[in-house]
Amino acid sequence: MPLNPNLNSLAYFEAVARTGRVTDAAAELGVSTAAVSQQLKQLEEQWGVRLFRRQDRRLSLTLDGEMLFQTTTAAFRMIRGARSAVLRQSDNRQLSMRCSPSLAVRWLTPRLKNFLDLNPEWGVRIDASPDFSDFETEAMDLDLRYGSGNWPGLYTECILNDYVIPLCSPDYRNRTRDLSDDPAAQIAAGRLIHSVKARYQWDLWLAVQGIDLPEQHAPLRLDRSSMAIQLARDGAGVVLDSVTLAHDELQRGTLVPLSTAFAAVEFPAYWVVCPARHMNRRIVRLFIDWLREDGSLFQTAARKTLERLGCTIRPAAPGEPGLL
User: Fold this and answer.
1) With 80 as the cut, is the pLDDT of residue 94 above it?
2) Do domains 7-87 and 162-269+302-315 have the same CATH topology?
3) Region 159-188 average pLDDT
4) Which end of the chain, N or C, is more open, meaning fewer C-beta atoms within 10 Å of its C-beta?
5) pLDDT at 23
6) What distance in Å separates the CA atoms of residue 252 and residue 308, rounded to the nearest whole number?
């Protein structure tokens, strides 16, 4: 067997093993099926083993083929990741980032012009997605993530604490007050809107408050905070969600706390996440510095808004988000 395997034939082998068909691999590689078949034949001859068996017009891997595929597919994935990293570094006038969708729409984008005005020579690409970046294979500089901050092996910094409190429209609040003067009874009688990806869920909040719901309860469940907040603003119920994301509505008065008897719970929620090596890029440092400053200003404004509305603020207790 040759000391140095033919990388071209290994690339053809990996494509066929991954797709299961010579024709699909040829289309992906941009070559003829005959070229692929010839490379596979040469590889089997060089290695002295059978790598494929044919089953119902598809190719399946032999035991030797499976062993080779596991190695080659990992190697080519790493090579593709290295290529993406090189291309990202060569594009030194653009920041590429991924951000939680609701935060991107409701908090980041309205502030982004300020960063661009301060740094007009830089471009910004934002992928609003709930999926975290795979920094080894994707050309992403950083993530702005919602979560606990527990991402081992990565640089993490909390940019924003969040405040969570039951919110509803003014009309909905007035209707619940007509039913009872007791805030707990107002919650129990109301329709609860669940933001299912939020860290602080109704079940935990109700347990902390000692509130039991009636057996006949019809909750509303949405997988985006932006949708849950919109539904609450429209008067459909009461949502336990982010003051950060609902701050504009609270300032305009289209959303209000259901009752100031309930304190807003504060916990670290939004994080910059990236490999430590990415901090060597000037644009990454500039953007994080800007986020840190703007986040601090926003937190001060959010606290003042809650205080103006008569709400108290308490830190999350053990067992609640932020102190798990």
Assistant:
1) yes
2) no
3) 94
4) N
5) 86
6) 13
Domain boundaries, the chain: 7-87, 90-158+271-297, 162-269+302-315
pLDDT tens string 178-198: 989 999 999 998 899 999 888
Contacts of 287 (CB under 8 A, 6+ apart): 95, 97, 115, 141, 142
- Rounded to 5 degrees, what are φ and ψ at 4? -110, 110
Residue with tokens 């001060």: 300
Q: How many residues appear in the chain?
A: 324
Residue with tokens 């985006």: 224
Helix (H, G, I), strand (E, B) or coil at 166: strand
Structure tokens at 246: 């609902």
Q: Is pLDDT at 237 greater than 80 in this prediction?
A: yes
Architecture of domain 90-158+271-297 in CATH?
3-Layer(aba) Sandwich (3.40)
Give me the pLDDT at residue 164, please: 96
Architecture of domain 162-269+302-315: 3-Layer(aba) Sandwich (3.40)
Q: Are 242 and 162 in contact (CB under 8 A)?
A: yes
Question: 131 Cβ partners below 8 Å, 6+ apart?
Answer: 98
**Token pair 């300020």 is at which residue?**
114
Under a CB-based contact definition with an 8 Å cutoff, are residues 301 and 202 in contact? no
Q: Which residue from 238, 116, 240 is spatially nearest to 186, judged by alpha carbons?
A: 238
Quick: pLDDT tens for 21-44. 888 888 888 888 888 888 888 888
Helix axes 7-19, 63-90, angle to 10 degrees: 110
